[in-house]
Amino acid sequence: MGNALQQEDTTKKNSTLLGADELVINMGPQHPSTHGVLRVKLKLDGERVRATECVIGYLHRGVEKIAEHRTYQQFAPYVDRMDYVAAVSNGLGYCETVEKLLSVEAPPRARVIRTILTELQRIASHLVWLGTHALDIGALTPLFYCFREREEILKIFEKYCGARLTTHAFRIGGLQYEAYDGFEKDVERFCKNFERRIQDYVDLLTGNSIWIGRTRNVGVLSAADCIALGASGPVLRASGVKWDLRKAQPYAAYEQYQFDIPTGTNGDTYDRYMVRMEEMRQSRLICLQAIEKIPEGPILGKVGKVLKPAAGEVYHSIEAPKGILGYYIVSDGTTQPYRVRIRPPSFVNLQALDKMVRGHLVADVVAIIGTLDIVLGEVDR
Amino acid sequence: MTLPPSLEAILTFLQNWWVEIVCGVVIVAVVPLIAGYVVLVERKLMADMQARLGPMRVGPHGLLQPIADALKLLIKEDLIPDNADKLIFWLAPVISMVAAMTSMGAIAFGPTFQVARDINIGILFVIGVSSLGLLGIILGGWASNSHYSIIGAIRSTAQLVSYETAAGLAIVGALLLAGTLRIRAIVDAQQQLGVWFIFLTPVAFFIYLVASIAETNRAPFDLPEAESELVAGYMTEYSGFRWALYFLGEYANMIVVGSVATTLFLGGWLRPFPNVHWLDWLDFLPPLIIAAVGVYCVYRAGKQPAEIQIWFMWAVALTCFAVAVIFAVPLFVTSLKFILPGLHGAFWFLLKVSGYIYLFMWLRFTLPRYRFDQLMHLGWYILIPLAIVNVLAIGVAMILESEFSWNRWFAALLTSLFTLGVAAFLVNLYDKRTAAASAPATAAARDPYAG
Predict the structure, then answer these.
(1) Interface contact A135, partner B, CB < 8 A
(2) Is A47 close to B372, i.e. CB distance below 8 A?
(3) Closest CA–CA distance from residue A89 to any residue of chain B (Å)
(4) Given A23, A208, A366, which is nearest B147 (Cβ)?
(5) Superfamily assignment of A63-380 in CATH?
(6) Which of B367, B374, B431 best tests the A interface by mutation, with the highest count of A CBs <10 A?
């Protein structure tokens, strides 16, 4: 991808539509709609994009390296800072991976509560995506509606563990906090309201002809391309591939619940929009099923105060809101991991940008960055 | 005592033109204030639609926010990029604003309120001069020497040229009905016909509505400054008061297009049903509406948390009552009856313009933004052909009425339906065309496995 600009230089010199020079503009790292500090170099023929080059790393903090100097418990809060829009999901992935390494299992009650919180987080993450995506395409109002609903979810998080954004909600082996009194009621109230609220977005966007014009056939990614590029999550499913780790390799308590995996057909921006909207509805259904019967029992499994997993390695992945989030941990038998490698969905999905953007107009670039739903904290780590 | 001839010439000039000069000064003084408050109203409306409060800090309910904003912009560092063409950079926003304000001069805000005398090419003057504002945008984008700016400037050139055509053709529809370019005569024609032109040519009004949104660079046609794509388009390199001048020009332009639409299609300063005498009680509406605002302020005053806010609300309420009394006096005092058309005319005119601007804002908060090619297609494939057909249809309707003595309403209805049919056909054609050509132009074949 890095060589894309140079390759273009030699093959297509001075072949713009009007014979003019190509225009190279620098989108980011400070730009209203690159969702953080992504920098995209665009090579333009008029307004048409010839080639792009992504420059990433502005938010690099060396999370994987930090892990090598922290104990397993100490590292858990750091993963919240990767995809800070979906901190709970990150935490779930990390905790389950270490549990797998330790060969312990979280008790059923903990797993159900984890599922509820993670699905709420998925809704919250998709709401942030929807609001910013719509804002990029020029619709101002959905952002505020989305954040209004997200606020309700964050309030539940705050009541549960005291934090709203970087929650550190789970502990290795289960949970630290018991669900507070009225937890089920709060979740239920949110889910009941959310059904009506989601209709607001549908009214504002789904049938809007400008919205359809801006998203349909924009950034088409075929199923083969998705698989070749390693794209996952809603990006993959919108291309028609029914692959969701919650069904394919069930973790937490997902095998207990009924839900559908929405898929698209064209793999364009509109399909990705529809898939994520449907995913929010499905997450809501999972939450409603889960709060009906939260099993009684302990919330923390049998793990010691000092975690010393046997030497070995483990890979575990979960379906984060943005795609497959994988952790690969190598243990050398001490209290600190020997190596942690994280497979972030945003980073992998971002590789599809160049493929999707070519031949489109500048305005489509922001639509496509929006539809990929990247978080730079996770891309750069 | 004899004056030197030059001084005498100046005195004669002042004697002849003092009303216009005073009005002009008033416009220059008042329009920035009005524009500032239009911004505040817009922010408040947006906040209302987006489940939040909007500006609340400066003054009660943020009412002093525009003044604070202006002050802040005035004392900001005056920044001109090193590589900019300094003279043009300096000149461009001034052109934009001057064009908007000059065109306002020819607009009649009532039968008696008009800066320029009732010039015989009134509407043409307004459109011509306000289009000059485009020059400011192009020059600003060019002089900034920035890629984002130049793209914004190119976009706005293409957009304004296209939509100016559509707006012009839509205006021709109304002008055919009025038979004059003179602004007061256009309103008088609507009074004589006893109907606003919007009811005779709804299609023309609709075309003008869409085109005027595009002309003023408002969402969903705000591509020249599309903040999520081009940062701020042609204004990217501008800051401080130069930026404010652009902003002022944009909002003044909104008032201008609102006024033009009101004059041409919404009956100018006429109250609803101006000729129906059993509806004369509608004349009582202006004072009643203003008094109602006052009553509402009194009602809200009791609910304000701070004492100063209570006082403020009472002050607003009393002002409203005073204005309501001023509006009511000519209704009852026969010797003052002559100021009624002017006073109430201005009220109705501003009410209609406000309604029009409210529509602009409402659309802005609701709709996503068009893409550039879609915008051009909409303009050239739908609006301009439709406007041409509409002009022809109005001509046919007028001939049917005058030569074949058809009923005016029937002729207007028939031609409007015909135009709507053409619109449906064009939209259908456009949909097919876009469906066929929506795939990206140069989808480069690329092996994803190549790495």
Answers:
(1) yes
(2) yes
(3) 29
(4) A23
(5) Cytochrome-c3 Hydrogenase, chain B (1.10.645.10)
(6) B367
Backbone angles phi, psi at A337, to 5 degrees: -65, 145
DSSP state of B62: G
How far is the CA of A76 from the CAs of A80, B93, B116, in angstroms?
Answer: 7, 54, 73
Instruction: Mark yes or no for CB contact A135/B49 under 8 Å.
Output: no
A281 touches chain B (CB under 8 A): no
Nearest in space to A341 (alpha carbons), one of A320, A351, A331, A326: A326
User: A317-332 pLDDT, tens per residue?
Assistant: 999 999 899 999 999 8
Give the C-alpha distances (Å, rounded to integers) separating B428 from B262, B390, B392.
31, 18, 21
Verify whether the Cβ–Cβ distance B368 to A210 is below 8 Å.
Answer: yes
Record the tokens describing residue A308, joined without a space. Answer: 């010393």
Q: How far is B37 from chain A (nearest CA, A)?
A: 21
The segment with the largest mean pLDDT, out of A120-129, A174-183, A371-380, is A120-129
Domain borders along chain B are 16-270+359-433, 280-358
Exposure of B240 in the CB half-sphere (CA atoms within 13 A): 8
Q: For B289-316, how does the pLDDT look when each residue is reduced to its tens digit (9 = 90+)?
A: 888 888 888 888 777 777 777 888 888 8
CB A280 within 8 A of CB A373: no
Question: Which letter does DSSP use for residue A17 in this model?
Answer: T
Contact A204 B441 (CB under 8 A): no
Containing H/E element for A314? strand A312-320
AA letter at A235? V
Q: How far is CA B309 from the centre of its chain?
A: 32
Mutate: best of B52, B229, B427, partner A, most A CBs <10 A: B229
